[in-house]
Amino acid sequence: MYICKDCFHDEELRSEISSNADKEGVCEVCGSRGKLMDFSEFDGFFDTLLSLFSSTDNGKKTIVDIIQDEWNLFKDKEIAKVLLTDFITTHSYDFTIHDIVDYDSEIQERVAVWKRLKASVKGNSRFFTNMDEFVTYNYLMPGDNGLKIGERLYRSRITPAGQTKLDCCNMGCPPKELATAGRANPIGIPYLYLCDSVKTTYFEVRAVYLDDLSVGVFEVSRDLKIIDFTHNVSLFYSYIDSQTPFRETVIKKKVIDAISLDLSKPLRRYDSELEYVPTQLICEYCKRVVGADGITFKSSLHKDGRNYVLFDETAAQCIDVESHEIIRIDIDSE
Asked: Could you state, in order of their start, the residue ranges of all structural domains in the chain?
């Protein structure tokens, strides 16, 4: 079966076809015209990937669901069904395209480290929880995309009635005695919460129609090592790179995604502070053990927005404050 790059969403797979396709024509799967490659050229990669799964009675997803929802390899699920059906029917696995599957028991056990840690710190040992598995497997390490000196981030606060805007000195962390617990920081230990864009700050402060906001512009004062909980992984690149075992790449990404999901959960008025303890512990681990200057994770309130937490409030300085008024609110539902 000859396929084209448009069958895939993964950039490394698309690049592989663009660079090594050996014929021109119409793709047998998606109908696009262009460079074509025999799908069998990817046998090694897909065999390595599908060998991580087995059929189960406890899951909820098919192999197509998992690969697309978690790894977004293909252009869409329809193309994924065609190509994975072709592959599975010509190879030996204990599942079909329609069966419910899950990762093998070793992967499930390793990925459950976050669930075990949460249960431990919330109901067993708050301050002496075992973090050995995080150390052994280096799940959390600063990436190459840290913050550079001079980069700008943003933070908003509701402007008090009767004021035009707040001063720079009032845009940073609260004093220790006023620092409440958050997803990242424990009570009494303030961290600096910032956003990648002004618009993201609107969502993070839950601004409403006609709110007046003071928007602080923060400039990073030194190069910072940041642990990225938003980093996307190309499975195909991991397969051809081979510096890290393929299985370890999958496990590490799933552990990071599980932590990221909890970091991104919006704070609610009725949340117990106990719910924050696991992510507070992870941030303390990143700060003290890994030596990171902060973390970044997806905003759950603004699609494509990104939040930053800096452990040292002096790592970014407020250089300007702008006055903004919210003049329109868009509400979506599903």
From this structure: 2-103, 152-325
| Cα–Cα distance, 330 to 78 (Å, whole number) | 32
Question: Residue 227: beta bridge partners?
Answer: 295
Rounded CA separation 323/179 (Å): 25
Query: Comparing C-alpha atoms, which of 154, 252, 161 is closest to residue 205?
Result: 154
| Under-70 pLDDT residues of the chain | 267-270, 329-334
Q: Residue 269: what pLDDT?
A: 64
Tokens matching residue 31: 């109908």
**Pairing mode, if any, of strands 306-310 and 192-195?**
antiparallel
pLDDT computed for residue 83 by the predictor: 97
Q: Residue 288's pLDDT is what?
A: 94
Contact 224, 315 (CB under 8 A): yes
Question: Which amino acid, one-letter code, is at 7?
Answer: C
What pLDDT is stored for residue 333 in this prediction? 46
Measured CA to CA, the distance from residue 255 to residue 268 in angstroms comes to 24
